[in-house]
Design a protein that fits this description.
7-stranded parallel sheet; about 210 residues; globular; about 0% helix
């Protein structure tokens, strides 16, 4: 794991990853968090390809009044997220806030983006802060197979989800969802803009 954490009022440090070829997280993680008043750090990765598997994750979390950090992946080739750990942890990209701080954004761009076998991109607020937004952009296709892209807020505004692809967005037994639970916040918007959208046993939801 790579951790950047703030337990006081200062901001957590940021993580920058550059690689000539690949970033691979096989049951590994990059986490940055704030547990009191500081802002969470950010992660930026500029790589040729990204593979996250077997419960691997990149996550930003806030458990206080600070703002969540941004997860930003700029991939010149393909991004593949798949599988779970033995304890059920889903491979994926996460942004979470649990008190009053706003959740951080998740921004992924790649040639093709695939989520499979339980993988997820998830921005969630369980406190009174806004959920973070999610932007997924592919030059070619975005494919979800038994996977999900979710923003959720318990009490405040839900995060927006924007999925763009030149060719195809294909969901098989999957879900793209922006929702608010029981609070007074607005539900997030879901925007999808490819040439073709195919839903097979799947749903798009904004509630």
């Amino acid at each position: 794991t790579i951790n950047a954490e703030s337990t006081g009022s200062g901001a957590a440090g940021s993580v920058a990853v550059t690689a000539v070829q690949a970033l691979q997280l096989d049951n590994g993680s990059i986490n940055f968090s704030s547990v009191t008043g500081g802002d969470a750090g950010t992660i930026t990765a500029a790589v040729e390809s990204v593979t996250i598997s077997n419960g691997g994750q990149i996550s930003s979390s806030v458990a206080g009044t600070g703002r969540g950090g941004t997860v930003q992946l700029a991939v010149s080739g393909d991004a593949d997220l798949s599988g779970r750990a033995s304890d059920g942890t889903q491979s994926g990209l996460y942004s979470a806030t649990a008190v009053t701080g706003a959740g951080g954004a998740i921004d992924v761009s790649a040639q093709n983006i695939t989520l499979a076998d339980g993988a997820t991109i998830n921005a969630e607020s369980t406190g009174s802060g806004d959920a973070g937004s999610v932007a997924v952009a592919a030059v070619g296709t975005v494919e979800l197979d038994n996977a999900s892209i979710i923003t959720a807020a318990a009490n405040d505004d839900g995060g927006n989800i924007k999925v763009t692809a030149t060719d195809l967005v294909y969901l098989r037994n999957s879900e793209i969802s922006a929702a608010v639970g029981g609070g007074l916040g607005n539900g997030g918007n879901v925007s999808i803009d490819p040439e073709f959208v195919v839903l097979s046993g799947s749903r798009l939801l904004a509630s």
